Amino acid sequence: xxxxxxxxxxxxxxxxxxxxxxxxxxxxxxxxxxxxxxxxxxxxxxxxxxxxxxxxxxxxxxxxxxxxxxxxxxxxxxxxxxxxxxxxxxxxxxxxxxxxxxxxxxxxxxxxxxxxxxxxxxxxxxxxxxxxxxxxxxxxxxxxxxxxxxxxxxxxxxxxxxxxxxxxxxxxxxxxxxxxxxxxxxxxxxxxxxxxxxxxxxxxxxxxxxxxxxxxxxxxxxxxxxxxxxxxxxxxxxxxxx
Length: 242
Prior knowledge:
de novo design (two linked rop proteins), 2 domains
């Protein structure tokens, strides 16, 4: 990353207090990925900068500095912040936490930036949450180099069949296996029709949606480690009106 970057499209992923009056901000930049910067004086009363540093608002940021930790020189809001509430807000915060936890610093992935932007816009509409989140999770895994092939057996190369069952090997893929014996169950085994439905982002069936959630959690877990995601706890809270 250059020592000076001007008017870089970005979103705020996370902020925290820094020193007496500043904020430490994790940005998701289109050309530079996750970038951490100091917003000096942003916690002072009446700070114009702090008003812009909100999640889900498309920004143009100017950054400078020779070290990995940059200084925020200027920030502009391109349009009004996206308004998310309830579980849709929690979903956006979940996506932000995934990016903070999993993205390498200063590694630009424009395709993932577009996927994130599309997901935020979708959260503002009325599309189903499971479909939005699963599509983003799969895009994130693909960007990290751990894409999940939902169409082929990872060993034989044969096409996934609707009526067959497959064992999921994280970071490797799906292996066709015999149906389990009565009374046996394995959370890592998925039905072919579930995988094909996820590929087509068709999660209207509750059982398929639950299988898709189980799959993406398994795929992400090895990269997240043992520390739980704080944003997942938000979904357990009751939300007024939902």
